[in-house]
Amino acid sequence: SSEDIEDVSLFDADDDLSRRSKKSKIRHPVASFFHLFFRVSAIAVYLLCELLTSSFIACMVTIILLLSCDFWAVKNVTGRLMVGLRWWNQVDDDGRSHWIFESRKVSAQRTKTSSEAESRIFWLGLITCPMIWVIFAFSALFSFKVKWLAVVMMGVVLQGANLYGYIRCKVGSRKNLTSMATSYLGKQFLRQTVAKEDQTGS
């Protein structure tokens, strides 16, 4: 028989409990740990650097190493495992550079490999830490800590690049963020216009 047969739970409560357990379970604990470890460690070293040592070079090298490890781990490992997204740059035979943004396709026969708990951990760390580095950048700029500005800008660039790449993966590689915002505002304006016409007509 060529018909697709699907197993259906006879009790909705049991089915809901199994779904909740799958959503709440962290399936990649090592990836989830290192997704937060490198970026939180870089922020902690930056905040506690003057208390730990008086050497600016040692602090700078440590922070840059942590940021580099974080960039590699998030771009190549944790994004693929935790949320099924990945992005990279490819150079063709003509020497032209292409940015590729991919999202895992979930088929009917294949269950979803990422859980809601992992997704929350991933996006929370991905969004919060670059915002903290932006705050550090303004703080270093206004307090005239010029020597720390280069280190802070490295954090903004590396973690901001991962944030931008995964946002592009999430919304779709063929869609431009500006065009999406414009179309959303256009739809909202159209809805308001239709609603006003309905009120005046009635």
From TrEMBL:
Keywords: Membrane, Transmembrane, Transmembrane helix. Pfam families: DUF846. It comes from the Eukaryota. This is Golgi apparatus membrane protein TVP23 homolog. Belongs to the TVP23 family. The keyword Transmembrane helix applies. It is found in: Membrane. The chain crosses the membrane at residues 29-48, 54-74, 121-142, 148-167. One of its GO terms (biological process) is vesicle-mediated transport. InterPro entries: TVP23-like. GO terms for cellular component: Golgi membrane. Signal peptide: none annotated. It is a multi-pass membrane protein.
